[in-house]
Amino acid sequence: MFKDMFANDSSLSFEVFPPKKDDEFENCYKVLDSLSELKPDFISVTYGAGGSRSKKTVEIASYIQNELHTDAMAHMTCVGSTSEDILAVTRDLEAVGVNHVLALRGDKPRDMSDEQFNQRVFPHATDLIRFLNENTKLDISASCYPEKHPEAMSMDSDLAFMKMKQDMGAKMFISQLFFDNADFYRFTERADKAGITIPIVAGIMPITSTKQIGSTVTLAGSSVPKKLADICARYGESPDDMRKAGIEYAIDQIRDLRKCGVGHIHIYCMNKPKMTAEICKSI
Ligand code: FAD
Fold first, then answer.
1. Residue 142 in 3-state DSSP?
2. Cα of 245 from ligand 1 centre, angstroms
3. Which of 54, 73, 136, 174 has the lowest tally of Cβ within 10 angstroms?
């Protein structure tokens, strides 16, 4: 996948989440059918922080890979996992022909005690990456944070751990969502100086409802620039206008990134194929 993707200067990929309930799979498959018609370079599938729903991630990634013949990337978190758990998920993925993972630490799950969190087997994504590199044949990607990870002491320390991820075997980074491209440009410049040589894919989340700001965006720790805050204030009470303005904002972000030489874009598409299609036709 890496070879094909980075042979070109640009790529487009999507992130989806697996269904929470068993009876939601059919609908999720329909969503994936529509997304694959947009011919993404790959589709990534999220993973529950505690690992309890890993089978659903594998099932959805398998559908993407084997039924839609689109490259699938499975997210994998280690915060609640032992080495055996990680090897078991690896076997499940390999059995269905999915060989690319996004290796993450994950956030502390709600049902995990502080003691369990402090004694976790894999303290950081770097430990998972090293383990996967030494024990599996998986292609490994990792996360990065244009505005630094909320727990990081400084941008410099975050960049040093990012370099460690690369040294441990990560072949590509996908960035946390951001709304101000200037943050991303500053970040990639610093990453370059810190010795990051592998591709950094820009993560874009279209904001189509103000609720997203209160949930996903706050959790991610991304800042909301005045322009986007004004859009939310102006159209917050009018869902159709908010959706339209949010999609336009994402399109402008992507166009500007591409104009400035950032070719690799990952859309956090929240299982919304219509919105994703609207963006794809305008970038
Ligand atoms: P780490 O890289 O371990 O970083 C966490 C903190 O520890 C940072 O402050 C970092 O600077 C520091 N650090 C890193 N390495 C070391 C080290 N060796 N020693 C000391 N400190 C270190 N969450 C999910 O639950 N499921 C998903 O599917 C999911 N997908 C995501 C996809 C993307 C593209 C991104 C950006 C995030 C995703 N997340 C997901 C959220 C992610 O799990 C959280 O942001 C989590 O808090 C950190 O995970 P990480 O892998 O970035 O952690």
1. strand
2. 30
3. 136
Domain boundaries, the chain: 2-282
Rounded CA separation 181/98 (Å)? 32
- Helix segments in the chain, DSSP class H: 2-7, 25-36, 54-62, 83-95, 114-118, 125-135, 155-168, 181-193, 211-212, 218-220, 226-235, 239-259, 273-281
Digit-coded pLDDT (tens) for 122-167: 999 999 999 999 999 999 999 999 999 999 999 999 999 999 999 9
Q: How far is the CA of 233 from the centre of ligand 1 (A)?
A: 31
Instruction: Identify the CATH number of the domain defined by range 2-282.
Output: 3.20.20.220
ipTM for the predicted complex: 0.99
Q: How close is the Cα of 158 to the center of ligand 1, in Å? A: 10
Is 189 in contact with 249 (CB distance < 8 Å)?
no
Ligand 1 atom 51, closest CA? 104
Residue 139 tokens read as: 């292609």
> Whose alpha carbon is nearest atom 41 of ligand 1?
106
CA 175, 181, 183, 189 torsion: positive or negative? positive
